[in-house]
Amino acid sequence: MRARNFSSEPRSSRSALGLTLVGALVLALAAQQAFSARVELGKAQARVAEARQVLGALRERSKGSARTGPDQVALARALAASAAPPSQVLHDMIVLMPSGVRFDGLELTYGPEVEIQAQVVALRVADYDEFMERLALSNRFDFVEPGPEVREGGMRARLRAVYRSGPRT
């Protein structure tokens, strides 16, 4: 009787076949999820494009009208709020803050432009000065004006600025 050499003969393994099938199933599910995500992305991009068209049309209508009645004021505020939501304004300010600076108060006034009034507290005067310089150099903030300051044992100050929304440069 002749002995079989198992090292050179191929073996069929049920576990290998099972693992292959599981791998194929996982790959199919991942492909399906990727396809669904791409479809959702397309829908979201279409909604954003539509919202931008509506916003553009509203802006054009508001530019063409010289009236300053309550409807125009409300429209100007709505346009400013949609172009510069409070979370975006706050984010753009915080990015410019040195670590030793914080807000003690923040007021945003929406009109034809977004006006900012902030109460700023800094651990060091140099931190406050750096923050003011960063605001002034930023393409997001115009008309940066320092207000009353208390420079004792740190820094307390009020500042005013105008926020500019739009594409970043």
Walk me through the structure.
With 169 residues, the protein is α+β, with helices and mostly antiparallel strands. The chain has 2 domains: 51 residues; 81 residues, General secretion pathway protein M, EpsM (Gyrase A, domain 2, 2-Layer Sandwich). A 4-stranded antiparallel beta sheet has the order 1-2-4-3. Strand 3 and strand 4 form a beta hairpin. The protein is elongated, with a radius of gyration of 30 Å.
Give the SSE map.
Layout: H1 14-64, H2 70-83, H3 86-94, E1 101-110, E2 114-122, H4 125-137, E3 141-150, E4 155-163
Antiparallel strand pairs: 1-2, 2-4, 3-4
Helix pairs in contact: 1-2
Features:
single chain; 169 residues; alpha+beta; Gyrase A, domain 2; 2 domains; four-stranded antiparallel beta sheet; 4 strands; 51% helix
Percent of residues in β-strands:
15-25%
The major β-sheet equals: 4 strands, antiparallel
Q: CA-to-CA gap between the ends? A: 85 Å
CATH superfamily of the largest domain: General secretion pathway protein M, EpsM
Instruction: Give me the side-by-side strand order of the main sheet.
Output: 1-2-4-3
- Report the mean per-residue pLDDT as an integer: 81
| Named CATH topology of the largest domain | Gyrase A, domain 2
Task: Please mark out the parts with pLDDT under 50 across 5 or more consecutive residues, or reply none.
Answer: none
* CATH domain class name of the largest domain: Alpha Beta
* 3D shape: elongated
